[in-house]
Give the backbone structure.
Amino acid sequence: MLQEAELVEISKGFEHNRPQTLCRITALGRRRYLDYLAVLEQVVRDAATAARGEPAADPHHSLKPA
């Protein structure tokens, strides 16, 4: 699934007569992972803000026209 989405590259071979499988993240996979981390970080910030009783930040605020 990750390989078909081009998020990882998988190569299989042998080293010292033993099977070896290598899995490497692609540039696209790295970008998607960093985007995912940014979303998780926002969830944590929103939860911390809610725990303090403050209104959550508007995630689309920077997208609104001035």
